[in-house]
């Protein structure tokens, strides 16, 4: 049987719709490929650049790491000559973990050889308690070597950072204290806490160790002579505000890390707010000259010996003072009534504006935070009269130094500073007092020192051309004045071209019956303090200070 | 043009890596020197601290009273002279000139 397996295959006509055509889109494949390669290279180069940047920034990261690791690290502090005032040193504490001790007897014998003075009964007890204890804190390098050579696993060494103060008490108020966590709690340690923690560079100050020592020595000596409650002295460059020395006595040894609670230890130079008396008369006269209301030879005639203002009276300290005085004579002889008359000529607005301009009335912005605020008061007719001769107005010795610097340096604004900066030429700075005022005031300040009528003859040290003004004020108490005094001398030298301002303040001095004064303006000496005034107390201290520091200032080229 | 740009980029990357390799060597040397300086610096600081303590005014006064009580004398500022070099001659003059009108 023949099967007809024939199948009819019908090939349907297949219409192939594919036909190669050039892409109608705008994409250029060839260009895209190049772009892709370029993109790959770009990515590689970006990654590579990031890597390069990363490597480049490693140095900075290392520094950051340093400060993070050494949490207790604090930068050192140097004086203007590069001497250490504060230094952070590594110390090693040695402890023992009794659990790891293999042979207690052997260990004790070895320890006795290294530390023969220790109480070994106590150490034996501690070893038996099986608790970690410190054997020796701040171990010497010799003993450290010996104890580590024992090779005992139970002996543990712990590295710590300690702050040491080689100058002990000398800069206690300036540097300030730190707490147990190495955090600054006063002085520069507080105000520069973050900077000291973050930088590896030492902080350079404007102070001079030798001069600070000599000034402090005089304050300590006269503390026992005049039995004052405390004292302070500031030596500052009048042209740039650099503080070369700032001593406040009594002070304390920073190495002892004692908690200071006695208020007598305050920084009198910056925190002490005092009524400073006649040293303010210089400001009254300077304000009068600035406003053009007076000149140095302007005469004030028929000056009374006593003035009544409200319930209180204003009188002259020296009854022998003439009734007719020029402005120069008022300042030299420290006339109260004459100063009141100048103040009245000025009126409240002008005197207040001048005092504000020289930085007396408001709180000073300083490198340390322990700064006193002048007591605010309400101006009135009587207040104007008392302020004119320095009563009923308070300020800090630091502000007094600043004001005298401005008045004597030609009238240029300066800011007292403890931190060494690049020297600025005062002529390029802001002038806040008219030209010529200093040239009128400085010779008068000199006459206060080198003439018989002046009140500061004891500071007339040959060779230094010292000028200045004394101020004796009674201390204020609630509702009036106490018998205790604050004796101040504000001096500048040399008066022909002032470089330094020196403030010496004695807080509650008393007369001394044994102290022998050597006269400077005439021959001879005088035993015993005749009056408890600045002229016989703080001026004498200032004279002794200048005698000691003068040769250093003149020969050491302190400007550098 | 595009190939040229690519070639330049490639060459730049190559040069950068070569420079980086050479600077890395210098960096390593600097690091080694710095590491060697570090203990010396620390030693110097310790020596300076010791010097500052031993030559502090307090110590000097102590030494003076101990050893030179009679040998050290105070000199008045008016007696201090200054040596000034003028070309090849030396001039000696007072450090502080006395002002006749002053005293």
The percentage of residues in β strands of chain B lies in 5-15%
What is the terminal separation of chain A in angstroms? 133 Å
Average pLDDT figure of chain A: 87
| CATH topology-level name of the largest domain in chain A | Beta-lactamase
Task: Tell me what the structure shows.
The complex is a heterodimer of chains A (560) and B (103). Chain A is of the alpha+beta class. Chain A is built from 16 helices and 18 strands. Chain A has helices spanning 29-56, 58-69, 104-114, 120-128, 141-149, 172-175, 187-191, 193-198, 209-226, 281-290, 327-332, 336-357, 381-388, 397-408, 437-450, 538-555; strands spanning 77-78, 84-96, 133-136, 155-164, 203-204, 230-237, 243-249, 274-275, 299-300, 306-309, 312-315, 325-326, 394-395, 467-477, 480-493, 500-507, 516-518, 525-527. In chain A, the strands form six sheets. In chain A, strands 1, 2, 3, 4 and 5 form a five-stranded mixed sheet that branches. Chain A is globular. The termini of chain A are far apart. Chain B is mainly alpha-helical and 103 residues long. Chain B has helices at residues 2-54, 57-67; strands at 81-86, 89-94. The model of chain B has no long low-confidence stretch (mean pLDDT 84).
Topology:
The complex is a heterodimer of chains A (560) and B (103).
Chain A: H1 29-56, H2 58-69, E1 77-78, E2 84-96, H3 104-114, H4 120-128, E3 133-136, H5 141-149, E4 155-164, H6 172-175, H7 187-191, H8 193-198, E5 203-204, H9 209-226, E6 230-237, E7 243-249, E8 274-275, H10 281-290, E9 299-300, E10 306-309, E11 312-315, E12 325-326, H11 327-332, H12 336-357, H13 381-388, E13 394-395, H14 397-408, H15 437-450, E14 467-477, E15 480-493, E16 500-507, E17 516-518, E18 525-527, H16 538-555
Parallel strand pairs in A: 1-5
Antiparallel strand pairs in A: 1-2, 2-3, 2-4, 6-7, 6-16, 8-13, 9-12, 10-11, 14-15, 15-16, 17-18
Helix pairs in contact in A: 9-16, 10-12, 10-15, 12-13
Chain B: H1 2-54, H2 57-67, E1 81-86, E2 89-94
């Amino acid at each position: 049987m023949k099967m007809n397996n024939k199948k009819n295959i019908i090939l349907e006509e297949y219409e192939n719709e594919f036909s190669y055509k050039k892409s109608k889109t705008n994409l250029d494949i060839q260009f895209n490929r190049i772009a892709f390669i370029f993109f790959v290279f770009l990515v590689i180069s970006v990654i590579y650049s990031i890597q390069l940047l990363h490597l480049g920034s490693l140095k900075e990261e290392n520094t950051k790491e340093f400060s993070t690791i050494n949490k207790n690290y604090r930068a050192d502090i140097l004086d203007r000559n590069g001497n250490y005032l504060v230094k952070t040193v590594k110390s090693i504490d040695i402890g023992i973990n009794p659990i790891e001790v293999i042979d207690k007897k052997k260990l004790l014998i070895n320890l006795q050889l290294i530390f023969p003075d220790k109480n070994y009964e106590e150490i034996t007890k501690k070893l038996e308690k099986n608790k970690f204890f410190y054997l020796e804190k701040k171990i010497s390098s010799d003993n450290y070597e010996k104890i580590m050579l024992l090779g005992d696993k139970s002996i543990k060494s712990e590295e710590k950072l300690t702050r040491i103060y080689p100058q002990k008490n000398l800069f206690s108020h300036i540097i300030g204290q730190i707490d147990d966590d190495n955090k600054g709690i006063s002085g520069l340690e507080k105000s520069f806490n973050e900077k000291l923690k973050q930088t590896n560079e030492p902080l350079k100050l404007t102070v001079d160790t030798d001069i600070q020592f000599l000034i402090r020595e005089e304050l300590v000596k006269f503390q026992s002579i005049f039995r004052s409650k405390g004292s302070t002295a500031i030596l500052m460059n009048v042209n740039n505000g650099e503080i070369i020395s700032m001593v406040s006595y009594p002070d304390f040894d920073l190495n002892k890390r004692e908690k200071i609670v006695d208020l007598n230890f305050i920084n009198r130079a910056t925190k002490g707010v005092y009524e400073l008396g006649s040293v303010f008369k210089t400001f009254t006269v300077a304000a009068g000259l600035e406003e053009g209301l007076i000149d140095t030879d302007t005469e004030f005639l028929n000056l009374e010996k006593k003035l009544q203002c409200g319930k209180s009276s204003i009188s002259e300290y020296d009854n022998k003072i003439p009734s007719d005085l020029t402005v120069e004579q008022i300042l030299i002889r420290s006339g109260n009534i004459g100063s009141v008359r100048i103040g009245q000529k000025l009126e409240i607005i002008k005197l207040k504006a001048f005092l504000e301009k020289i930085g007396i009335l408001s709180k000073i912005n300083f490198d340390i935070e322990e700064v006193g605020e002048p007591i605010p008061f309400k101006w009135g007719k009587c207040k104007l009269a008392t302020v004119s001769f320095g009563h009923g107005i308070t300020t800090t010795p630091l502000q007094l130094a600043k004001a005298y610097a401005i008045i004597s340096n030609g009238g240029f604004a300066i800011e007292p500073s403890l931190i060494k900066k690049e020297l600025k030429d005062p002529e390029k700075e802001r002038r806040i007092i008219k030209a010529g005022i200093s040239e009128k005031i400085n010779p008068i300040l000199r006459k206060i020192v080198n003439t018989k009528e002046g009140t500061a003859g004891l500071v007339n040290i040959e060779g230094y051309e010292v000028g200045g003004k004394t101020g004796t004020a009674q201390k204020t108490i609630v509702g009036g004045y106490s018998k205790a005094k604050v004796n101040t001398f504000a001096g500048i030298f040399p008066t022909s071209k002032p470089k330094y301002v020196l403030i010496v303040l004695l807080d509650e001095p008393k007369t001394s019956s044994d102290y022998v004064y050597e006269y400077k303006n005439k021959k001879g000496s005088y035993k015993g303090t005749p009056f408890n005034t600045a002229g016989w107390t703080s001026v004498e201290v200032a004279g002794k200070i200048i005698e000691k520091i003068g040769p250093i200032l003149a020969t050491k080229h302190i400007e550098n | 043009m595009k190939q040229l740009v690519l070639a330049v980029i490639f060459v730049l990357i190559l040069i950068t890596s070569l420079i980086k390799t050479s600077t890395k060597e210098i960096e390593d040397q600097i690091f080694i020197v710095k590491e060697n300086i570090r203990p010396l610096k620390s030693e110097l600081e310790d020596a300076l601290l010791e010097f500052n303590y031993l030559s502090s005014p307090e110590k000097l006064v102590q030494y003076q009273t101990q050893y030179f009580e009679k040998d050290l004398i105070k000199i008045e500022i008016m007696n201090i002279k200054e040596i000034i070099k003028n070309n090849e001659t030396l001039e000696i003059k007072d450090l502080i000139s006395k002002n006749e009108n002053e005293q």
